[in-house]
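Need Secreted protein's 3D structure for a figure. Predict it.
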Amino acid sequence: MGGNTGLIPLEFVLTNVLLAGFSDRALCDRVLNGTCLLDEADIEVRPEALPSALLDCRVSLPKLKKYCTPDAWSLLMASVAVKKKNVLWICGLRKEKDDGALKMVCCDRCLEWFHWYDMLDYSYECHCFLLPEKY
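Structure prediction for Secreted protein:
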């Protein structure tokens, strides 16, 4: 067997999801195509707005460094450090901070956290892998 299966490598998909969590999705496409790097102005700096996936131990943050200018990388790491210090886990659907009152569950695909009651609603489906058709 062998050849192109048409499947997207999981690492590429996760990188796309992570980059889109702290920058513009269209810009992420250009970054992943190698046509530009993320600069300071492109990076979300509010710790509460950063994806919770950046706190996940399964994410290798250094692998994202090659997509950023040195200044943008420093800015992102400073914001992630504040997010870690304050333990800011945000519901990926409702964008509410976890206060510990409600159970939360992590999506194993995008590594975002969601309130458990959202998962009990059968109409809910994690949309983390809705990527542009070219992927």
